[in-house]
Amino acid sequence: xxxxxxxxxxxxxxxxxxxxxxxxxxxxxxxxxxxxxxxxxxxxxxxxxxxxxxxxxxxxxxxxxxxxxxxxxxxxxxxxxxxxxxxxxxxxxxxxxxxxxxxxxxxx
Amino acid sequence: xxxxxxxxxxxxxxxxxxxxxxxxxxxxxxxxxxxxxxxxxxxxxxxxxxxxxxxxxxxxxxxxxxxxxxxxxxxxxxxxxxxxxxxxxxxxxxxxxxxxxxxxxxxxxxxxxxxxxxxxxxxx
Lengths: 108, 124
Fold this sequence. Notes:
Order of helices and strands of chain A: EEEEEEEEEEE
Helix content of chain B: under 10%
Radius of gyration of chain A: 13 Å
Number of helices of chain B: 0
Largest interface: A-B, 30 and 25 residues
Helix content of chain A: under 10%
Structural class of chain A: mainly beta
Distance between the termini of chain A: 35 Å
Distance between the termini of chain B: 40 Å
Radius of gyration of chain B: 14 Å
Shape of chain B: globular
Oligomer: heterodimer
Low-confidence stretches of chain A: none
Mean pLDDT of chain A: 95
Structural class of chain B: mainly beta
Shape of chain A: globular
Order of helices and strands of chain B: EEEEEEEEEEE
Number of helices of chain A: 0
């Protein structure tokens, strides 16, 4: 199906590791990109491609993908990482762009 | 550093036409996809559509009958028109730059530069 599925929310203790998953058939053909969004701000690209980070994104953010499932991992979560995270991909059959519904990361 | 600056009417009445423009500063227009995305209050991101430097368009099928995305290469600008808006289309509208990298087996697409967003309210 041409959808991307994300868990609505996940919590992580300060300094611990959290993994956010994204599932969808489009991920078999296109690696996803991942965005962080804080209230009142535009989305910020944090991971793209197989596991690339734009300049300025801390290396505690990493990505992986296998089959129809992709993950964004935050290793050593900081208070500043509390935000909504969206995955994004392209459907290879329709060429349409897809967004997951977003995962709220709560840092305890 | 590439920047996107967007503008347009922020308050519309139902059935009116939404019109937004996004200008690309300090960067090439060619080789990229130029997208519009929206986000209703408290909700997730929704892709509206995109255009490339050759003016090829690709629209969200749920909005296709009401959307026009166009480019003006002479001004390094691209625009969105959405007709017959309803209150449910109240949202922050973003423009963004996207790029496709094609691989033998797996490709990837990403949007690395975004505008700051324009809040559009549809209310009678």
